[in-house]
């Protein structure tokens, strides 16, 4: 997919100085033989699977998993066959508690994305084994613009913001037009302080139903 086809504003956004600087940074990382995750073909995977006018729910992550073979361009999702990270394990625990969906399902969340769940990380790349290594290089400007555009041009979306980092993005969302669901991050360090028991999956579907939209099959 050509990322420019996702929304008319993308072309202009890619030509901004911050994105030119980001491209230069990524090229330098490659030249230095750094391993960048996910692989470049998956940097815009979330947009490839969830078209702009198909988005119903946005689940915002921070940056990709930094373990080899984990990240594939969707927030919180890992490639099928790879061991579930603890955060994803807690997401499945909450799904079971909320909607009685068995937690032994695939760790690849592509089936959510194809139904309209935009699984968006704020930063779309990371150096292998170095969490947040590509923060503040320009990705945030790009993804913040995506959030603002969705908020401005769409109606009745559900923005799911887990943890303090994601919740900072609420400033870009019109709460009068959309539902914003917030709680702690599903990480084992914080999940017990609000994430487990939040019932965000059923609340999101209830909101979609209230606005005559097809609900998400989370299973």
UniProtKB/TrEMBL annotation:
SUPFAM superfamilies, alphabetized: Uracil-DNA glycosylase-like (SSF52141)
Catalytic activity: Hydrolyzes single-stranded DNA or mismatched double-stranded DNA and polynucleotides, releasing free uracil
All copies of domain Uracil-DNA glycosylase-like, residue ranges: 48-208
Keywords from the named record: Cytoplasm, DNA damage, DNA repair, Glycosidase, Hydrolase
Keyword DNA damage: yes
Source taxon at top rank: Bacteria
Compartment list: Cytoplasm
Main location: cytoplasm
NCBIfam families for this protein: PRK05254.1-1, PRK05254.1-2, PRK05254.1-4, PRK05254.1-5, ung
Protein role: Excises uracil residues from the DNA which can arise as a result of misincorporation of dUMP residues by DNA polymerase or due to deamination of cytosine.
HAMAP family linked: UDG
Name used for this protein in its record: Uracil-DNA glycosylase
Source organism: Ruthia magnifica subsp. Calyptogena magnifica
